Amino acid sequence: MDEIVGKMGPHDLGGEPGSKIDTVDHGMTHWEKHANALRMTLSGKNLITVDETRRAAEDMGDHYFEIDYFRRQTEALAIVLLERKLIVQEALDQRMEEVQNRFAVPIVPLPDSHDHDGKPIQEDESGEGPNLHHVMNISMQELLQEKGLVTAEEIRNKIEIFDGDYPNRGPKVVARAWKDSKFRESLLKDANPVIEEMGIDLEHAARVIVVENTPEVHNIVVCTLCSCYPRVLMGQPPTWYKSRSYRSRVVYEPRAVLREFGTEIPESVIVRTHDSNADMRYMVLPMQPEGTEDWSEEQLEKIVSRDCLVGVSVPEGVV
């Protein structure tokens, strides 16, 4: 066993001890959304692969543990783009200096009466301009734009769709499955074509596998390697999904993890943990709550949360 552990990479967390899970989703700053959108756009165009960026991150050694998720993602992306010769180091260094200088402007304090059209102001950064990794992402995007490989509109649209569309798609699929038994049967057999027949563009995503909760079995989803997750159906994975504690503990003590989310599963029910990867993503089809049989699909969508689709919670009314 010691020999195996010695060969494990920093992503290999399944089954390791972990601390209590912070079950709060802390959301993402703008620069993190931009980093995510850039990587997903490049992956969707087959300019990079998830496996490449994961390998680049794993090769960072101790540095892997010194930076957080999106900084690792950014540095790994730069490594892959350099390896593929889509950018060169000298051009990246020069562009990063230019971008930093672009933001070197005086900070103008806003008057107390400034209310941003009645909406609260959300300070994304410290007030001192973008951090180094945001600068790196902006620079990589600009260099790729100049080669005609991406456009600013593609990245912007990806950020917008993450906030406005992706999170609503999974609940629509579940509501349809609850109302249409033939659809449900096809969904469980081969999800991708059935979902796309609903008019949902999966954007050439990896294979989606839908696992059904029943009175006998409760399913829960994880990615022990990093954060593989059906983003085009559920939006950005929550903060806790990417955490070391969740990725390690949910494999060997899923009931304890569920309890931390406030979900109690009877001992008579089998709990199955499904580990996603670069080639396939899992989504849970929860049980429909009793008393909702006559509800419309629109009503049913509203009781299906993202956490239900991961399996850490159940729709209200389900025991």
Can you describe this structure?
- With 319 residues, the chain is mostly helical.
- It folds into two domains: 26-118 and 126-162, no CATH class; 168-310, Nitrile hydratase alpha /Thiocyanate hydrolase gamma (Nitrile Hydratase, Chain A).
- The chain is 47% helix and 8% strand.
- It has helices at 2-7, 30-44, 50-58, 63-66, 69-83, 89-102, 132-146, 152-164, 166-179, 181-189, 191-197, 231-234, 244-252, 254-260, 297-301, 306-310; strands at 207-212, 217-222, 270-275, 280-285.
- The strands form two sheets. A two-stranded parallel sheet has the order 1-4. Strands 2-3 form a two-stranded parallel sheet.
- The longest helix has 15 residues, at 30-44.
- 34% of the residues are buried.
- Residues 1-7 and 119-126 have low confidence and may be disordered.
Largest sheet: 2 strands, parallel
Order of helices and strands: HHHHHHHHHHHEEHHHEEHH
CATH topology assignment of the largest domain: Nitrile Hydratase, Chain A
Number of helices: 16
Structural class given helices, strands, pairing? Answer: mainly alpha
Mean pLDDT: 86
Amount of beta strand: 5-15%
What is the rounded distance between the termini?
A: 39 Å
The dominant shape is globular
Topology:
Blueprint (H helix, E strand, L loop, with lengths): L1 H6 L22 H15 L5 H9 L4 H4 L2 H15 L5 H14 L29 H15 L5 H13 L1 H14 L1 H9 L1 H7 L9 E6 L4 E6 L8 H4 L9 H9 L1 H7 L9 E6 L4 E6 L11 H5 L4 H5 L9
Parallel strand pairs: 1-4, 2-3
